[in-house]
Amino acid sequence: MMKNRLTEVARLPENVRTAVTVGTFDGVHRGHLEILKGLLKVARRQGLRSLVITFEPHPGHVLHPGNKIKPLTDTPLKVRLLTELGLDYLALLHFDRALSRVGPERFVSDYLISRFGMRTLVVGYDHAFGSNRAGNEKVLTELSASRNFTLIKVPPVLLDGQPVSSSRIRTALSEGNMPLASKLLGRFYSFTGQVVTGSGRGKKLGHPTANLVLLNPHKQLFPDGIYAGFVDLDGKIVHGVLHHGPRPTFNDSSSTLELNLFDFNGSLYGRQLEVSIIQRIRPVLRFETAEELIRQMDRDDQEVKKVFERIKIPTDSLSRAV
Fold this sequence. Notes:
Elements: E1 7-8, E2 18-22, H1 30-46, E3 49-56, H2 59-63, H3 75-85, E4 89-94, H4 97-100, H5 104-113, E5 118-124, H6 137-146, E6 150-154, E7 158-159, E8 162-163, H7 166-174, H8 178-185, E9 189-196, H9 201-204, E10 210-214, E11 225-233, E12 236-247, E13 252-261, E14 272-282, H10 290-310
Parallel strand pairs: 1-4, 2-3, 2-5, 3-4, 5-6
Antiparallel strand pairs: 7-8, 9-10, 9-14, 10-13, 11-12, 11-14, 12-13
Helix pairs in contact: 7-8
């Protein structure tokens, strides 16, 4: 059950004492969840309030603008996932060049302690912050002694002998390996799009689709192809087939996101849908005739239905995982 008590703050009253963790938390994956659950446990044990400090935009966009890093989670999804954990506070810091130049000593003093009342800092096994990531384990250990706070280090979460990380998830997504991405995340990968008016071609082919435009155009996606996916429509899980990519049968090279939902006949125009992706079915193919395409789409529907026969989708988002 969701615990709707997360409060976004820019500063806390002086009498509030906190256990804090700091990070980008891109993906809010299984490794992050271990840190966040550790934070909650420590806060309860020490009688502190729990606080997550994260950044917007992704620091990589500011520090390395040429590398085209794409976020795994946009801010609304990140906030929702943190809320569902039952945390007390969230501080969303605007990341810019000025903040990137703040050293670890000043960040601990001016932000964590003075602004946010930190008494305990919980970090991951490879955590570092401050200018040029100078706030490594050695520096943080020294600061914990001089500034009188407790430092707790959380070990990595391993999958197949390697730590779970955002970079591993990006690699899995780039390969279209949705089951691996789901295992690393601890839930199915999703994106949010707004339903817009399309060409109506899908309806004419007997497979009506909702045409989606990404709310976050920088969102990390996956290779072109046909995918099994689902949406939560007013509390009801609805399965469907997602087309991602061009439509070569009709000589259309523009990339589209089109979702054909099973057992749904209503209008979705204008709505925002969060689409969770289960598995890649096949690549985008060119067919000689519309009739050949229709036959393949019928086969795609059957293949996707077999996927959902094997996988039960829970109703709460944090546990929607393989």
